[in-house]
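Quick one before lunch.
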Amino acid sequence: MKGKLVIVMVGLPARGKSTMARKLGRTLEMDGVRVRIFNNGELRRKLDTDFSTSSSEFFSPANVQGKEMRERISQLNIEQAQAFLQEGGEVAVIDASNVTRERRRNIDAAFPALPMLYVECVNADEEALEANLERKAGLKEFRHLSREKALESFVRRIHYYESIYEPLDEEPNRILVDSFDSCILQERISEVLPYYDRIRDIITTRVVRNLYLVRHGETFYNREDRIGGDSDLTDRGQDQANALAEHFATIRIPIIFTSNHKRTLQTATPIAERQQPCSIIALPEFNEINAGVCEHMTYEQVRRQMPEVARERGPNKYRYVYPEGEGYATMEERVHRGLKKVFFLNNYDENIMIVGHRAVNRMILSSFLSRQEAEIPFIYMPQDRYYHIQIDPHKRIFELIPYRSVATAGIGW
Ligand code: F6P
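Model of the 6-O-phosphono-beta-D-fructofuranose complex:
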């Protein structure tokens, strides 16, 4: 259903509002809807020449000047949204914390004839929130502060917002979203809203703009066909990491997600060094399958010394759990949790890279492909190419791309 709509984001800082706003905006745009996002934080940073608005005190409810400036910024964005809608725009997304009723009443009053949809974002996952705070503390607006001070300042800013927070309750069209789990927790819609079914779909559907799923380079254990462990890259593995760095030098990757194992960090490091700037976030959820009593053994040793493992695992690889370790099936939950963290921590518009392991990458890939359980542990996961994944309501792309640079292409293996 066509028409005009104002979407108002609501939520404390670092709750995934902007990511959700961009996901809504970009997807509706692909459907042919004229959408624009009006982000108060971006406007504030544009107007701020001396970092005065990044200090936590700027956000104190007791700071009269700070409050005035924040309301002025909100007003400017409201006016731009009004102009956009008058000039043929269809959906305006007001992306700001909008945590007080007073602020929301002002927004309502500015669009008296238009339907309004309030989208409140919450995130109950403490770990994801913490990781998001860490990421925010590294943003440009805090570059004049140490990491510690930036974090402290951002946490204080959130406390100020918490002290005045009034959850949605009287707005006739409101939806409460868990932005970490991409699910709708509550909704109350009192009129027929344009695009509403589509909006529900977008909120709950995973959209992947560009995900580069890379397996770490060759390790000493790989060379000996050993299972698990935490071994280093070989020279060839290092060479692969350098070739990846070269390959991705012109593709913007702001964050690389790895496991805690050295081999993924060593693969990610040269890639990150070629990017400006790029942070590496190690997630334990992406650690390789724990092979329990078989860790450090070669596959041949397992066949000889523990024939029952080889016998039982072979025909039932997905469900099989290593004694004192894991199986593909038991890894599923943690890997999916890792993926949720990735989507929560990554800005919606940015490319994503994950440097993982053979079994973990199979699980990641299988969460996008609908594969039979039995096929998952056999998905091809080479070390000389990576998967490029794109998923949106219009397309699903999975390509396996070789990355070795011309200089190293001669090394066969
Ligand atoms: O051999 C490398 C490795 O990552 C091991 O650490 C891991 O146990 C294995 O691959 C997973 O692959 P598969 O399930 O096929 O044994």
